[in-house]
Automatic annotation (TrEMBL):
GO cellular component, one term: cytosol
TM region(s), chain numbering: none
Protein name from the UniProt record: Cytokinin riboside 5'-monophosphate phosphoribohydrolase
Superkingdom assignment: Eukaryota
One Gene Ontology term from the biological process aspect of the record: cytokinin biosynthetic process
GO molecular-function terms, A-Z: hydrolase activity, hydrolyzing N-glycosyl compounds
Gene3D superfamilies: 3.40.50.450
Xref: Pfam families: Lysine_decarbox
Length: 185
């Protein structure tokens, strides 16, 4: 039984009915911002597996979005063999030094296995709002990527985005709403 794989210009979607996670989205895209948008589009939780510099960038961007209140998506880091221990320690230090407003455990949860991470995400679905809608500045919404490729909007599906080496957030989303809210105070 091979998994069904659909290819398009933007992503590959793999479905394996024998697994609890029904969709694995491998995002492509013409530029990094488009790829990041595809990774979180319609997600209701985010899982980070061990990865390299791209994963670190995406993970930090999402941690920033959560800390600034720009995202409420539950986020869990699979900390196999303490791979992400330095990241956890940096968040703890930033909290101790009053450099972040959220407690580290409210920014990202650390799990010791992929199974534990999936269980945590499933539990988070009961704790969090049923679906968190992404808000973007009007000027961030566009029909083409920076390099001119068309951006295809799709109806968000409830899913846990399990992306082997990728997770992130569109860096510009929500910034204007937050600025307006802070000015109103």
């Amino acid at each position: 039984d091979k998994a069904e794989i659909r290819q398009s210009a933007d992503h590959a979607l793999e479905n394996d009915p024998s697994q609890p996670i029904r969709q694995l989205l491998v995002a492509g895209g013409i530029d990094l911002q488009e790829r990041k948008r595809l990774l979180v589009q319609g997600a209701n939780a985010l899982i980070v597996l061990p990865g390299g510099p791209g994963t670190f960038d995406e993970m930090w961007e999402m941690a920033c979005a959560r800390n600034l209140g720009m995202s409420q998506l539950p986020m869990v880091c699979v900390n196999i063999d303490n791979y992400y221990e330095p990241f956890r320690q940096m968040l703890e230090r930033a909290w101790k030094d009053k450099l972040v407003k959220l407690r580290p455990q409210d920014i990202i949860h650390f799990a010791s296995s992929a199974e534990e991470a999936v269980r945590w995400c499933e539990d988070a679905q009961h704790r969090e709002a049923p679906f968190v809608e992404l808000k973007k500045r009007k000027e961030a919404l566009r029909s083409q990527s920076v390099l001119g490729s068309p951006i295809v909007e799709t109806t968000p599906k409830r899913r846990i985005s399990l992306v082997a080496k990728s997770l992130s957030w569109l860096s510009s989303f929500g910034h204007q709403e937050q600025t307006d809210e802070m000015q109103a105070r």
